[in-house]
Backbone:
């Protein structure tokens, strides 16, 4: 399941106004298929992801995610992915959901999500890496506190990195994408400054197939995503002031790179690439 923030109320033509197909392949003829999670919006960002057997996710006590009022998130959408809809009753439907706790009281720290993505192809009988890089926007120092790596069935490892120099690497987290997907704590007390370079890498294994795998939404396709939750100190500021000062610019920032051979860390001139970005973590 994914919780997605949109900048406008959802606009779906025909069908059920609060239920639609966002681009899947289950063939729900009774549903409108606008092909997106936020039809009618110009902006969206992923706020939460979770898979079966994963654990919940609670912000630190002094942290809140700005929504509503004059923020860019005016509408929340729950996106649910199904392997099959055969077991769902047409009478009662599905009651999957996410509990969202909210307050009208300002929090001293605002949460945001920065994400890195790759759109590539994995040739048959190949094990390879997909790499992404991202330069942090805005004016505020970020304090990362959680991350999530996401692939489909070919993923073996997802890792994120802060790259102060071309040969220096600081881990933002490593995860096994075959394990239940959930946000995990970032290691240590890290800070990220405006202009810093972040990177992510996915290890993908297609060695047992004669078919090329392309990037896409369905389970037969592949994805490479790294989501980083961070906080920004906005104590003493109204949300509008924080926005105007660029303190929330990195919230919702998305960086997408093409896959190899068009792009790789090596092609970008990075050196001393950590072995931990290649070798998989414990599958448990």
Residues:
């Amino acid at each position: 399941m994914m919780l997605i923030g949109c900048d406008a109320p959802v606009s779906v033509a025909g069908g059920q106004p609060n239920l639609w197909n966002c681009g899947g392949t289950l063939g729900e003829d009774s549903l409108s298929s606008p092909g997106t999670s936020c039809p009618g919006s110009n902006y969206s960002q992923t706020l939460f992801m979770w898979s079966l057997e994963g654990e919940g996710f609670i912000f630190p006590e002094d942290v809140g995610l700005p929504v509503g009022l004059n923020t860019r998130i005016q509408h929340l959408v729950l996106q649910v992915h199904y392997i099959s809809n055969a077991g769902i009753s047409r009478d009662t439907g599905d009651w999957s959901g996410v509990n969202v706790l909210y307050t009208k009281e300002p929090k001293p720290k605002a949460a945001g999500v920065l994400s890195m993505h790759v759109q590539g192809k994995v040739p048959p009988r190949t094990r390879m890496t997909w790499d992404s890089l991202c330069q942090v926007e805005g004016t505020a120092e970020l304090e990362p506190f959680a991350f999530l790596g996401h692939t489909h069935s070919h993923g073996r490892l997802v890792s994120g990195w802060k790259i102060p120099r071309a040969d220096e690497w600081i881990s933002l987290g490593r995860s096994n994408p075959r394990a239940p997907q959930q946000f995990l704590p970032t290691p240590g007390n890290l800070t990220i400054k405006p202009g810093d370079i972040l990177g992510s890498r996915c290890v993908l294994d297609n060695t047992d197939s004669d078919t090329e795998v392309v990037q896409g939404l369905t389970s037969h396709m592949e994805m490479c995503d790294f989501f980083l939750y961070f906080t920004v100190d906005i104590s003493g500021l109204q949300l509008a002031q924080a926005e105007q000062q660029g303190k929330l610019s990195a919230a919702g920032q998305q960086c997408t790179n093409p896959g190899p051979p068009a792009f790789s860390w090596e092609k970008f001139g990075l050196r001393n690439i950590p072995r931990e970005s290649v070798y998989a973590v414990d599958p448990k």
